[in-house]
Design goal:
The complex is a heterodimer of chains A (304) and B (336). Chain A is built from nine helices and twelve strands. Chain A is of the alpha/beta class and 304 residues long. Chain A has a domain of 205 residues: Aldolase class I (TIM Barrel). The radius of gyration of chain A is 18 Å and the shape is globular. Helices cover 32% and strands 22% of the residues of chain B. Chain B contains eleven helices and 16 strands. The chains are: A alpha/beta (304), B alpha/beta (336). Strand 8 of chain A pairs antiparallel with strand 12 of chain B, so a sheet runs across the interface.
Chain lengths: 304, 336
């Protein structure tokens, strides 16, 4: 069976209708196998409510997708925990990104270990498998060697999913940096995130794109892409590759990875990542680094 | 009823720092081995077997405790190194182990069921469900909470767990949730989780340009300082960047955390230990901060309500603060 394409949780604040439209398209897209739903970043973003996510989960399951509910990476308040308990009680698979989430699903609900659980070695991976994990996502800073080594050691029944495309979620804080930029308090943020469907770009003082501010989350400015390594990942036997939703060219990105997993040559188009690509983590280098690529063709991965 | 006063846990990057902490009133010191098993893996710091033996003797002779931080994440294929550190720390008389990796916690629990285990701040437990999970699974006796919670949230965690709660009281301020920040490896390839250092010094380059001193990390410009402007170490999250056309400290100004003004509230929140940051700092820093916090905590014996910050304490701490500014950090709501 070929490697599955997973659409990761939407990390940005999009208006409700755009979120519903996204998942309507995804439901009708035969190339996408797994869909992660839910608000993974900030509990104040409630245009799409928990009940909406559960409705979407039902619709997408009906459309033949494997659905996973993602939990917030930073769980601080009782309100955050309440939402989490509702996810855990839904009967669906949950992506845990926090030890509190792990505590609620361990030995009771099948769960996915998200990239923020810090699984860096064989012993910890085996421990999570004992708790009932059905899939794991390596830390985003994990190199090819880490992924290959741990994947090779994984207990039977545990799938590996690699974050293969998107801005990298690198850090979380109690502070909302979007609110800070606008001089607002976190609890009085006026939901400015919704004005930035791909976060706010942060450049160095000499103009180099560096990071992306997305509420309490900080992402890379560059787009991490393992498109040219999909054949490698498939040869390793990795079960799924994750594409992180972005507001532009998502359909082309999915087409590119779909081509790559079927063994066709594929190159990222410049329009997929206007601020540039990166893949340094793959080789154990700085994440922002980029290995040499053949010149990208405009438009589509096949240079159409 | 008098509330139980919190213990004071102080950093020791070296034997002289350990003695300074003990001599000035720390109830416990925390330290690490001289390798990548601890999250302050800086050149010239930390303890080999001989120094640890001596440090443990010095502390135990004075009825103080020694906590061993083995709080990076064991790297693939090298789990044995971290397990050996656990075995060695206990053999050398450590009173508690500060761990972050779940696999390593499981090992310590199974191999050394009597050992006192603390969940490191690098373990990123921000809620009582997380703390209680580690209590059920590994029998942890204490959890160090990340510097991202408000005091009300700290109190909420403390109320809902049998695990002792330790919080940071003074020192450098991480604005990101510790253990889940990859900014350093994004810029350099090395992070606290993997090599035990953030924004490692070997990637720092200073360049004097006309009118400005530039601080770079692996070539990336973190900040530039005008002539006469105090220049700070280029820690990624404390740099100045361009956001929406303005140059700003997008994450945090270079400040230090100082909870002294809210010490009685920390006690009321049910916090059992206050931790001083700074294993990379000098023995003089450790001595000064330990002495001030010892006096401040002891002054609470007279009652929580009458507490005031003595000017001499504030002066002493201001002199060792990063950027010479102090903040209540996330504990105080306005910060958010």
């Amino acid at each position: 069976m070929s490697v599955k394409i997973a659409l990761g949780p939407l990390l940005f604040a999009w208006p409700r209708q755009e979120v519903l439209d996204l998942y309507a398209r995804v439901g009708a897209d035969p190339r996408v196998d797994v869909v992660y739903l839910g608000e993974a970043v900030c509990s104040r973003r409630q245009q799409v409510r928990a009940s909406d996510w559960l409705d979407l989960a039902r619709d997408l399951t009906g459309a033949g997708k494997e659905v996973v509910l993602s939990s917030q990476a930073l769980l601080e308040s009782e309100g955050d925990l309440k939402i989490l308990r509702r996810l855990a009680d839904s009967g669906l698979t949950v992506e845990a990104n926090d030890l509190g989430a792990v505590g609620l699903v361990a030995r009771t609900v099948p769960f996915v270990c998200g990239p923020h659980l810090n699984i860096y070695n064989e012993a910890t991976l085996a421990y999570y498998a004992d708790l009932g994990a059905v899939r794991w996502v390596p830390p985003l800073e994990g190199s090819r060697a880490l992924i290959e080594g741990l994947h090779g050691s994984r207990p039977a029944g545990l799938e590996t999913e690699v974050f293969a495309f998107g801005k990298l979620p690198l850090a979380f804080s109690a502070r909302c940096f979007t609110a800070r930029h606008y001089g607002l308090g976190k609890d009085d943020c006026e939901f400015r995130c919704f004005d930035h469907p791909e976060g706010i770009l942060l450049r160095t003082r000499e103009g180099q794109p560096f990071l992306t501010v997305n509420g309490i989350q900080t992402l890379s400015a560059q787009t991490h892409s393992l498109l040219s390594h999909v054949a490698d990942l498939a040869a390793m036997g990795v079960e799924a590759i994750r594409i992180s939703p972005q507001p532009h060219r998502l359909d082309d990105v999915i087409a590119g990875f779909d081509a790559a997993r079927r063994g066709q040559a594929a190159v990222e188009a410049r329009t997929w990542a206007p601020l540039g690509l990166c893949d340094g983590y793959w080789d154990g280098r700085a994440g922002i680094a980029l290995a040499a690529r053949q010149a990208p063709a405009e438009g589509s991965p096949q240079g159409r | 009823m008098t509330a139980e006063l919190p213990h004071l846990v102080c950093p020791a990057g070296s034997l002289p720092a350990l003695r300074a902490a003990v001599d000035h009133g720390a109830d416990a010191v925390y330290l690490g081995f001289r390798n990548d098993t601890n999250a302050r893996n800086f050149a010239g710091l930390n303890f080999d077997e001989k120094a640890l033996r001596e440090g443990v003797r010095y502390a135990h002779d004075r009825r103080r405790e020694v906590f061993l931080a083995i709080n990076t994440y064991p790297q693939p294929g090298r789990v044995a190194t971290w397990r050996a550190a656990v075995d060695e720390a206990l053999a050398l008389g450590a009173d508690a182990l500060i761990l972050a990796d779940l696999g390593l916690l499981a090992y310590a629990r199974e191999r050394h069921p009597e050992a006192r285990l603390h969940l490191s701040v690098q373990g990123s437990a921000t809620n009582h469900e997380a703390v209680n999970f580690c209590h059920r699974e590994f029998g942890i006796r204490r959890a160090v909470l990340p510097r991202v919670l408000t005091l009300a949230q700290v109190a909420q965690v403390a109320r809902q767990t049998p695990v002792e709660i330790e919080v940071f009281g003074f020192g450098s301020l991480c604005v990101m949730n510790e253990g889940r920040c990859w900014l350093s490896s994004y810029a350099t390839g090395e992070s606290p989780n993997t090599v035990g250092a953030c924004s490692p010094a070997r990637f720092v380059r200073w360049e004097q340009k006309p009118g400005a001193l530039q601080a770079r990390l692996n070539g990336i410009l973190i900040d530039a300082f005008a002539d006469g402007e105090p220049a700070g170490y280029p820690t990624l999250c404390k740099g100045r960047y361009e956001v929406g056309g303005s140059i700003e400290y997008a994450f945090e100004e270079p400040t230090s955390l100082n909870v002294l003004p809210m010490l009685p509230d920390i006690v009321r929140a049910g916090v059992r230990a206050i931790k001083v940051e700074g294993r990379q700092r000098s023995p003089a820093y450790v001595a000064r901060v330990t002495r001030v916090l010892r006096e401040a905590i002891d002054s609470l014996k007279a009652g929580l309500d009458g507490f005031t910050v003595r000017p001499a304490w504030a002066d002493a701490l201001a002199g060792v603060s990063e950027g010479r500014h102090v903040t209540l950090g996330a504990y105080s709501r306005p910060w958010r």
